[in-house]
Design a protein that fits this description.
With 300 residues, the chain is of the alpha/beta class. 36% of the residues lie in helices and 20% in strands. It contains 9 helices and 15 strands. Helix 6 packs antiparallel against helix 7 (239-261). 44% of the residues are buried. The structure holds zinc ion.
Length: 300
């Protein structure tokens, strides 16, 4: 999740705030496809509002939606979706259980035939909702898989794959095979500090391997939709971006391992603007990376 303030401050630094005149100019220039059904290839596109990126395929004979943000944003999306095709959703996916990707599931209840997710994602969603006494407001996945799951819809074959623990222990990548577009969910935080959910089975070390497996599974023409980018323009990308994020995670482990050996505290380690040798990853939340790496390294 990212706050608007975080978005704007990062974006301002990236673009140079002096070039822009006023808030409208800022939003227009930096968010060319916010709150908009932005087509990427064929009938497949991306919707950005508040929360993780929504991926979609909308055709006369089939609709697929990946992730649901929050209830209000899901309702916004559904309104725009119905303007394109007024029909049921054949498949709704959750890339993983976090609230900024799955709280909006409830808005699709009765509209979507099925809700698909990795088995661990479903278990995490149920557990965390129960902890918050919020099970009533959840629509939990009714179709789960362990390794992969595939179905033909309209002109597409849609295939979900699980590569092992990374951001959580239940993240999957969902591929529109003909458009060759793959939604990575939060296995990709592009150029901004990631959330690493150790309480839901995250593993930084294995995440590096997961990213390598993804690069080996898809090709150089694959267009990736990322769970989060530093600005909207960075919400999609290529295998090169996955490789750059692998480097971020490797450098994070190196930096924290060395610091711990020198007896440094988390506060001391977090007192930098970026992880050494990974300067492209910036924004709020470096402390979350440091803390997660310390937990992981202490466990080894
Ligand atoms: Zn997440």
């Amino acid at each position: 999740m990212i706050t608007r303030r975080g978005f704007l401050s990062n974006a301002s630094m990236a673009m140079g705030a002096t070039l822009l005149s006023g808030q409208q100019g800022l939003l227009k220039n930096l968010f060319p496809f916010a709150h908009d059904m932005h087509v990427l290839r064929n009938n497949v596109g991306i919707y950005l509002d508040r929360g993780g990126s929504i991926g979609w395929m909308i055709e006369k004979d089939g609709i697929v939606v990946i992730d649901t943000q929050f209830p209000e944003q899901a309702a916004n999306f559904i309104g725009l979706m119905k303007e394109k095709e007024d029909r049921k959703v054949d498949i709704l996916f959750n890339t993983h259980h976090h609230g900024d990707h799955s709280s909006g599931n409830i808005a699709f209840k009765g509209l979507a035939d099925k809700l698909v997710a990795h088995a661990n994602s479903r278990a995490n969603q149920e557990r965390t909702a129960a902890e918050r006494n919020a099970l009533d407001s959840q629509w939990l996945p009714d179709t789960v898989f362990e390794e992969s799951w595939s179905q033909k819809v309209g002109s597409e074959t849609v295939t979900a794959r699980y590569f092992g623990p990374g951001h959580t222990n239940g993240d999957s990548v969902i591929h529109f095979e003909n458009a060759n577009i793959a939604h990575t969910g939060d296995l990709m935080f592009n150029r901004r500090f990631p959330y690493i959910d150790k309480s839901s089975g995250a593993s930084i070390e294995n995440w590096i391997s997961v990213l390598q497996q993804i690069r080996n599974t898809y090709d150089s023409d694959t267009l990736f939709i990322f769970g989060h980018g530093k600005v909207n323009e960075l919400s999609t990308g290529s295998k090169e971006d996955l490789q750059a994020f692998e480097n971020y995670l490797e450098q994070l482990l190196n930096y924290v391992k060395k610091g711990m050996a020198e007896g440094k505290t988390a506060d001391e380690l977090a007192a930098v603007a970026f992880i050494p040798n990974a300067p492209e990853w910036t924004g709020d939340g470096i402390r979350r990376s440091i803390d997660a790496a310390m937990i992981e390294l202490q466990g080894n």
